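Deliverable D4.2, example record:
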Amino acid sequence: MKTNHISPIKQTALMTILGMLIIFNVTADKASEEILSSIEIQASPESVWQVLTKFSDYPNWSQFIETISWEKLQTAQALSVGQQLQIRVVPPNEDGMDFTPVVLVFNESTQLRWKGNIAGMSFLFSGEHYFKLERTAQNHTRLIHGEVFNGWLLPLLWSSILENTPAGFEAFNLALKTRVEKKEP
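Output generated by the structure prediction step:
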């Protein structure tokens, strides 16, 4: 009768791999950080939404999110949940980065949300970017702009993200406010 015996070296290697998987699983569950910003815009959520979602105008006013496009843009199909975007972001003092996130939420005049990851592997690194528009008592808009980051690589990338990305969010918010308020009568 033949018995299967695992050599001590293979056993050690398997135990090491198992231990790493457990550690990575625990780390991935706990590795979550968020950048959060907000600004009040003296215009209705509908007016803010019109500027926020007119992606073809971004190069004229936004220095942080330079471009947003999607395959169906040429056919004038409206953006919808599940579509993949092509986004170019340029944080202050950094080279630009290109992303291809997927739209998670597209609720007119209230919320736009997309999520991107590395090579289709959210467990390594992902970012869920969002814009929420809240109507104030004065019929103005409180823009809440943020991103939740997750994944095993987050602890390695977080200090780099914090270097310039929050300033990019703030610059985008101010540019959006300026653009919308110029259009308001």
